[in-house]
Amino acid sequence: MTETAPPVLETEPAAAATLFGDRLDLARSFTNELARRGEELGLIGPLELPRLWTRHILNSAVLAPLLEERGRVADVGSGAGLPGLVLAIARPDVHLTLIEPMERRVEWLTSEASRLGLDNVEVVRARAEDVADDIVVDQVTARAVSALSKLIPLTVPLVRSGGQLILMKGARVEDEMEKARKVILRKRLADVEVLELGVGVVEETTRVFRATVD
């Protein structure tokens, strides 16, 4: 029987230099460590290495230009640090609060922020709904957490009036928006839109649900 070769980490795409600039070495270090330990820690699946840069790192990095200058951002359900740690690397001027309930993932986020010297990162072990009275930020991000109908009520309480939700979604984001229509109205979200990020820059573009919180 022929043994299947183990997955190999994807070659760094040229777009990485465009998106990270002089922070590219930090992005490489994070990506390599995630490739080395991600499956063991349950952060990524066993088949993700051949697309780690394209589907996960760059997919998160394209959000960086949407963050307010010197803003405060909360990343809900940070998990492996996608997009939270990636954004902290790409935007050292922005303060990132990474909200994650699982202890093992909190330990990973904390150790990586320390190892990479990211002094703009704070890791909070909690569920979003449990820290709504303690955390108020300019923008909230989330990736692969839940459908908009559930995610919007979790994230809105964290955002100041006039702040934004920047929620990474998949190809069916319009369907999610329709199902969340009543929630969007009830939470009085304004300037609701879907953005496609990374067009002409990355191989796989990123769709984002963006809205302003009243």
Regions with little confidence, pLDDT below 50 for 5+ residues: none
Q: In angstroms, what separates the terminal alpha carbons?
A: 62 Å
- The succession of helices and strands, N to C, reads HHHEHEHEEHEHHEE
Mean pLDDT over all positions: 95
Number of domains: 1
- Approximate shape: globular
Annotation keywords:
alpha/beta, single chain, 8 helices, 7-stranded mixed beta sheet, globular, 214 residues
Layout of helices and strands:
Layout lengths: L14 H6 L3 H14 L14 H10 L10 E5 L7 H7 L4 E6 L2 H13 L5 E5 L11 E7 L4 H8 L3 E11 L3 H7 L1 H6 L2 E9 L8 E8 L1
Parallel strand pairs: 1-2, 1-4, 2-3, 4-5
Antiparallel strand pairs: 5-7, 6-7
Write up this protein.
This protein is an alpha/beta fold and 214 residues long. Helices cover 33% and strands 24% of the residues. Strand 1 (72-76), helix 4 (84-90) and strand 2 form a beta-alpha-beta unit. The longest helix has 14 residues, at 24-37.
Summarize the structure.
With 214 residues, the protein is of the alpha/beta class. 33% of the residues lie in helices and 24% in strands.
